[in-house]
Amino acid sequence: MEHILLLCTWVSRVWIGSLLSSQINRSSITILAEWLYVVINQNMGCKEDLNRSMEYLVFTCWFIWRARCDAIFNGVKPSPFKSNQVIITALESFKHAFSSLLLSSTIPNSLPRGMHHLALWSPPPINRIKVNVDACWKRDSLCGKIRIVARDSFSGCKAVKSVWVHVSSAGMAEALAVLEGCLLAKCLQEQEVVIESDAQGVIWSLNSPSLSCD
């Protein structure tokens, strides 16, 4: 199982190119469960981030298995880049379906403390891309992680990126996430871009008339 989901050469490239940016140290891996435990702890900034990491690990393992089956039974050459694109698209589709199911139920206007209404992802206008950015941050270590996904108006994944940062606050991490999203759009040579973030303070600051470009 360790070889199938971790140690195979093309599988290692899937993990390295994933949003988790997980390196595979062949000499230290003996049990798959132990490696998963280490990866989860490395990406555990908060409960919400833990849930995202768990979802991503499950989807990645499943699509690695599917790609391997396609290679064996259908002669389809596995591609790490394509696998990561499929994983991102499938995970977003899952979240969209789950959000739709939840919102279609009767939800009270006043939710218990700590719970929030789920927001549905909406595609950008035609000929534009939307760059979704998010960040988590640990107060004790001052370390954070930025995750970025760029998609077109047909929900096609254009690029994904994950960056570790060392900053003094969660707000700084969120601000850097927006900056990294802009830089990714520039690398893609996109001119018409929509940046989406759940950090209201950062967005309000960027939209403020008093903001200086200097």
Q: The biggest beta sheet, please? A: 4 strands, mixed
Helix content: 40-55%
The best one-word shape is globular
The end-to-end span amounts to 54 Å
Poorly predicted residue ranges: 101-111
Number of strands: 4
Helices and strands, in order, run as HHHHHEEEHEH
Structural class assignment: alpha+beta
Tally of individual helices: 7
**Any idea how many domains?**
2
Describe, in plain words, how this protein is organized in 3D.
With 214 residues, this protein is an alpha+beta fold. It folds into two domains: 102 residues, no CATH class; 79 residues, Ribonuclease H-like superfamily/Ribonuclease H (Nucleotidyltransferase, domain 5, 2-Layer Sandwich). Helix content is 48%, strand content 16%. The chain has seven helices and four strands, in the order αααααβββαβα. The chain has a four-stranded mixed β-sheet with strand order 3-2-1-4, sandwiched between helices. A hairpin with a 4-residue loop joins β2 and β3. The longest helix is centred in the N-terminal third of the chain and has 27 residues. The radius of gyration is 19 Å and the shape is globular. About 5% of the residues have low confidence.
For the structure shown, list the relevant keywords.
alpha+beta, four-stranded mixed β-sheet, 7 helices
How would you briefly describe this protein structure?
The chain has 214 residues and is α+β, with helices and mostly antiparallel strands.
